[in-house]
Each structure stands twice: as structure tokens, then as C-alpha cells.
Specification:
The protein contains seven helices and eleven strands. By secondary structure, it is of the alpha+beta class. The strands form two sheets. Strands 1, 3, 4, 6, 9 and 11 form a six-stranded antiparallel sheet that branches. It has a five-stranded antiparallel sheet with strand order 2-5-10-7-8. The longest helix is centred in the middle third of the chain and has 35 residues. The N and C termini lie far apart (about 70 Å). The model has no long low-confidence stretch (mean pLDDT about 85).
């Protein structure tokens, strides 16, 4: 390999690594996050392919078997991915084992595709095995993006129901106590399926709903069907924000209400109150972004059943 070609491949490798470290997709939201994570797969695949090209011309690697070269490239690529996560942590960005797993999948795909395309002399049987391995890795890597897309489609089809619990996809947009199976589970009740949530301090005693269907124009009220499943009364607060929220208390909608022990209630909130809640502006009813239900109660048995949330 000529020096100029080696330098070019090295520059391409460095560029890919820097893109993974500093690159961000435009936009916000869970689907963008899923895409951002999945971007590790093609990036790591390209890194693995470049390393195979460089490895083939590295004198020491000529003593290795083809299998050793491929295993070494997959391990090195995954190690690069892990190092990137450490660097991102040092830069106060998110560190994620899931990203390292995507790097591993990408390395497998890159190496398997190179082998399938005849980079190393091999039998047709081994090439078919590599192709199957690459296809399986692609399916595993694509699943989070496909699941995210399915959740958004399900959310849009269910509207004007903001929340109900007839499908596993209904839990995709839930945060805090509602997102942890340790504190929340779906149970069958007289009114149908409900999410029973223990409002524990370790999950901030709250139920977060991210990215509900955003356009609430044309509706007049929000309804929340909820039951206190404990014997003790519980004070609750519902909080609603739009996409422009500045994290100030006065820039969102807040309403408190009480549930007596074992009380079932349908809370009705006029959307005019939501629209006029932020100080100095109106809520953008076309871009609702976050709903939060929480309690300040310290009692360890604070537990509610969230049946439905919908617009009328």
C-alpha cells in the first residue's frame, strides 16, 4: 500500500471517529435519540472495513489467519466505541452501554459484509454464513428504531386518547416511576387496563409522559381517570408544558388535586386554563411536549392506578 493511500485511509478513520464523538442529528425526541444510537452501527461498520483494509497490509497481520484478523478488527472497533463513550463522558455528554453494543453490531456487520464480498479467499459456505450473520446483526440493530417508529404511529392512531394501556407500545413515552417495571405494572380493572404505579422517592415520585400527540387545538378539555389504590389520602399535581418551556414554574400549567383513600376520580381540566397558564405568553397548544403527574407525599404506600387520559 502506498503512503498516500495509507494516509487517506487513516484520515477517513479519524474523521469517522470524530463524527461519532461530536456529531448530533438535528431535532429532539425519542425517535431522534433512537436514530442517533443506531448511527453507531454504520459508523462502526465503516471503521471495521477501513481497519480490515489497513490490517491486510500490516506486516504482522500477515502471519495471522483470516479468522484472527476479523476477530481482531471486531474487538478493536468495539474498543474504539467504548473509548468514544468514555470521551463523551469527559465532555459531559451521555455515556451509554447501548452505544457500545451498537458499535459491536456495526463491527460485526462491517466485517461480515467485507467477508461476503470476497475480501478474503473463502468458501461459498463461509461467505453465506457471513451474510446470515450480517443480516441478523442488522435486524437486531434496526429493532429499536422500528419499535420507536411503531410507538409514534400507535400514539397518533390512539389520539385523542393521550394515554391508555391496551398495548405495550403505550408505555414507550413514559418516564420516572411509570417507566420502571419495579414500580409500575399494567393490571386489569373494571374500567379495563390500568397502569398501577408506586410513587417511590427513588423515581422522583412522579409519572412523566414525554411527547404526547402535540396538537391539542380544537379540543376544550383534558380528562384524567385515576384511582388511589392505597388507604391513605394522596395530594397530586399535574403539570403540562409545551415545546417552548423555559423550566420556570410560571412558564407551565400546574394544578393540584387530592385523592382520598381508595378514591376513583375523573379529573377535568379546561384547556383554556392550560393555554393561559404561562406568565407573559400563551401555551403553544399545537406543540404540547410534556405531562407530569407527581406527589409531594412522603408516605411509602403512595400508589395510583392511571386508567386513561384523553381530550374532548
Amino acid at each position: 500500500m502506498s503512503k498516500s493511500r495509507a494516509y487517506l485511509l487513516g484520515a477517513a478513520l479519524i474523521s469517522l471517529v470524530l463524527t461519532v464523538v461530536f456529531g448530533d442529528l438535528p431535532g429532539r425526541g425519542l425517535f431522534v435519540g433512537a436514530l442517533q444510537n443506531s448511527a453507531h452501527v454504520p459508523a462502526s461498520g465503516a471503521i471495521a472495513a477501513l481497519l480490515l483494509v489497513l490490517c491486510r497490509h500490516w506486516p504482522l497481520s500477515r502471519k495471522w489467519t483470516a479468522l484472527t484478523r476479523y476477530v481482531a478488527v471486531v474487538l478493536v472497533t468495539t474498543t474504539i466505541g467504548a473509548a468514544i463513550e468514555v470521551i463523551q463522558g469527559a465532555l459531559h455528554r451521555d455515556m451509554s452501554l447501548e452505544d457500545v453494543f451498537h458499535d459491536f453490531l456495526g463491527a460485526l456487520i462491517g466485517a461480515a459484509v467485507m467477508h461476503t464480498c470476497g475480501w478474503e479467499p473463502s468458501s461459498n459456505r463461509l461467505r453465506k454464513t457471513s451474510l446470515v450473520l450480517a443480516c441478523v446483526a442488522v435486524l437486531i440493530a434496526a429493532f429499536p428504531v422500528a419499535w420507536s417508529a411503531a410507538a409514534y404511529i400507535h400514539r397518533d392512531r390512539e389520539f385523542p386518547f393521550v394515554l391508555q394501556f391496551g398495548s405495550r407500545l403505550d408505555r414507550y413515552f413514559l418516564y420516572d416511576c411509570a417507566a420502571h417495571s419495579k414500580f409500575a405494572k399494567i393490571e386489569q380493572m373494571k374500567s379495563g387496563s390500568a397502569l398501577v404505579v408506586e410513587l417511590d422517592p427513588t423515581c422522583r415520585k412522579q409519572i412523566g409522559v414525554a411527547e404526547p400527540y402535540a396538537d391539542w387545538r380544537g379540543y376544550s378539555r383534558l380528562k384524567l381517570e385515576i384511582t388511589n389504590t392505597a388507604n391513605e389520602p394522596i395530594p397530586l399535581t399535574i403539570r403540562i408544558e409545551d415545546i417552548h418551556h423555559n423550566q420556570e414554574y410560571t412558564d407551565r400549567f400546574n394544578q393540584s388535586f387530592d385523592l382520598a383513600g381508595n378514591e376513583y376520580k375523573i379529573l377535568t381540566i379546561p384547556l383554556d386554563a392550560v393555554r393561559n397558564a404561562p406568565a407573559g405568553r400563551q401555551m403553544d397548544m399545537q406543540h404540547i411536549y410534556w405531562i407530569n403527574l407527581f406527589t409531594s407525599l412522603e408516605h411509602p404506600t403512595a400508589r395510583v392506578a392511571l386508567h386513561r387520559m384523553w381530550l374532548e
